[in-house]
Specification:
Mean pLDDT: 80
Helix content: 55-70%
Radius of gyration: 25 Å
Shape: flat
Low-confidence stretches: 157-177
Amino acid sequence: MAFIKILSKYLKSATEKVGVNPKATYAVVAVACANAIFKPLSTMLDKKEKPETKKYTALREFLTECVAVPTYIACGQVAEKFANTFKDPQKAKVAKANLNFIGVCTAAIFVIPALCSVVIKPMTDMIYHRGDPKPQPAKVDAKSNVTFENQAVTKPELMSDYHKYSFASFRNGGLKV
């Protein structure tokens, strides 16, 4: 019972602070935290996907939200700093709220996708390939006349698979992946 009283006390003070000084950052951070929990969970509960695919996708979704939360906070704070140029306190307060919203939107549209494209691939590689030796370069099979590095395929029985998975197949009726 004491735990519930303590929890209600902290929830009350948190909601009062949010109500006095609402920021767009609070909403998007709450959504990002929920996404960090429920997106990977729903991915792992998908029974149609392969286990390897589910694990990788869930990890990628979780890491995306882990990148998003501090980015939202930082971009909102940085944007708010520009409100200090207003002399009138009322205009500065309005400008601060508007700039916080603009900073959060900028984070969602530009900064988070850029950071995720830089951060997530190395992190997933580090997690999944920990301790594995580096992959060996592709070998050339002289008997089948197939070069795996540049995908030069000459045998007719291999051509169907080549066109099924190649970007070069767009000339033959569309990309089939």
